[in-house]
Design goal:
This protein is an alpha/beta fold and 233 residues long. It has two domains: 55 residues, Beta Barrel (Ribosomal Protein L25, Chain P), CATH 2.40.240.20; 158 residues, SPOUT methyltransferase, trefoil knot domain (Alpha/beta knot, 3-Layer(aba) Sandwich). The strands form two sheets. Strands 5, 6, 7, 8, 9, 10 and 11 form a seven-stranded parallel β-sheet that branches. The protein has a four-stranded antiparallel β-sheet with strand order 1-4-3-2. Helix 2 packs across helix 3 and helix 2 runs parallel beside helix 6. It is elongated, with a radius of gyration of 20 Å. The two termini are 25 Å apart. The model has no long low-confidence stretch (mean pLDDT 93). The structure holds S-adenosylmethionine. S-adenosylmethionine binds next to helix 6.
Length: 233
Amino acid sequence: LYVEHPLGQGQSVPLTREQAHYLFGVMRLGVGGGVALFNGRDGEWQAEVAEAGKRGGALICRHQSRPLQMPPDLWLLFAPIKKARTDFIVEKAAEMGAARIVPVQTDFTNAERIRQDRLQAHAVEAAEQCGGTYVPEVGDLIRLDRMLTDWQGGRQLMFCDEAEAGRASALTSGPAGAPWAILIGPEGGFSPDERVRLAGLDFAHTVSLGPRILRADTAAVAAMTLWQQAMGD
Ligand code: SAM
């Protein structure tokens, strides 16, 4: 169960109404019942129900069952598309172990706003369902050109460009151990200006995800798989 509260030996964790409903109404736990908790920072803790009520309750942390497992330093930058597909991208990125998920506004991105809180909740659910101890942070919508101007830390960029469609690239370039980001474009792809700018950046590596033009949500999953295969995490 995901909670926002800090977790530690003997720590009491108050429950929201929804959490109480889930634990006591749906899971039928009572006082003394056990539940595994994580908050994305303190690892996984085994806790016991101390108080159970209709509108709330409290758990007590007993012992840590797993330490925090940080994912590799991989960001997914993607241009938001239709709502359900954007939700899918965030969910899959969290499952695949992205450390940060950043919606970017490119020249051909239609969305002008996103519901960051909704997307963050999807990331929490995905981490919960795949037994992760870490929850990736979902950023606010940011313009791609601004992001590239403020680029820092030697992070390498896997620029997935549909114009390169052909044999899937082997991701071999980039300094060993460097952090990475994957960039996926919107339905309309990248603009000529964006391609020129990206081609001139020494940290950007243009890659193909295979001979077919994939939908952005499929491309995000394919790119993360290709990255994992090359980087081994
Ligand atoms: N509308 C564009 C077109 O028809 O040329 C296609 C854009 S595609 C639906 C969305 C994004 O997925 C692209 O901007 C790119 O980042 C990624 N993508 C899809 N297929 C790809 C491929 N074969 N190689 C590299 N990137 C790909």
